[in-house]
Amino acid sequence: MPRGRYSLHDPHDHTPLGEEHFHCAPGPSGWRYVSQTVTPSGDHLGSVDLAVDELGRPIRLELNAAGWQVRGAALDGVTWVRSDPTGTHATEGNVRAHAFTGTSPAFLVAITRLLRLTPDSPETRLRLVAFTDPVLAPLTVDQSWALLKSEAHATDNGPLIVDEYQVSTLDTGERHTVHIAGDVVLAAPGIELEALETPPSVFP
């Protein structure tokens, strides 16, 4: 079960946003990721609990931030309920989308499980519902993903396969790369892996 810590920063001006302390693991029905986020000063910021099935579809998502909460799952596309800090108002949303995304590295791993790309795969387009900071406001985004290469890196625990993806945001034309090993993000815009206690899980 990989367990570690990511540092989060603004991908444009590199302002520190805090840290995400996580653990994750594949299981008989898919993969689960649980984390707590803290501010740069160490105050509690929010939490992430994401479970995907063996095909990479989100079967349960729970996000908490600034008192707001989102619960969601893949249902007629993706469906979610967003509650305000007082708990008196809840709004339901549904979009014909493939999955969820947001600032957590969990979403990047979940998307790769959904797409199952190889270096020979064509660039693959998908629609996502992003929950944006700081109040988890939903935003529909279209991206395309391509696996540029997979490389083996020698480690004390044997070779580590690192996948390099190119991600394009279609409405802005912005492109960036994401490096993932198993179920751990090594580097992505706004995300740096700072500590890892156990090696990444290897998916079958």
Give a description of the structure.
The protein has 204 residues and is mainly beta. 5% of the residues lie in helices and 62% in strands. The chain contains 1 helix and 15 strands. It has one helix at 105-115, and strands at residues 3-9, 16-27, 30-38, 44-53, 58-65, 68-74, 78-83, 90-95, 99-101, 124-132, 137-155, 158-169, 174-181, 184-188, 191-196. Strands 8-7-6-5-4-3-2-1-15-14-13-12-11-10-9 form a 15-stranded mixed sheet, with helices on one face. A hairpin with a 4-residue loop joins strand 12 (158-169) and strand 13 (174-181). The chain is globular. The model has no long low-confidence stretch (mean pLDDT 94).
Q: Which descriptor suits the 3D outline? A: globular
Mean pLDDT: 94
Number of continuous helical runs:
1
Helix content: under 10%
Strand order of the largest sheet: 8-7-6-5-4-3-2-1-15-14-13-12-11-10-9
In whole angstroms, the N-to-C terminal distance is 15 Å
Cα radius of gyration in angstroms: 16 Å
Uncertain stretches = none
Helix-strand topology string:
EEEEEEEEEHEEEEEE
Q: Major β-sheet, in short?
A: 15 strands, mixed
Residue fraction in strands: over 45%
Structural class: mainly beta
Strand elements, count: 15
Pick out its properties.
mainly beta; 15-stranded mixed beta sheet; 1 helix; 5% helix; 15 strands; 204 residues
Which helices and strands appear, and what pairs or packs with what?
Elements: E1 3-9, E2 16-27, E3 30-38, E4 44-53, E5 58-65, E6 68-74, E7 78-83, E8 90-95, E9 99-101, H1 105-115, E10 124-132, E11 137-155, E12 158-169, E13 174-181, E14 184-188, E15 191-196
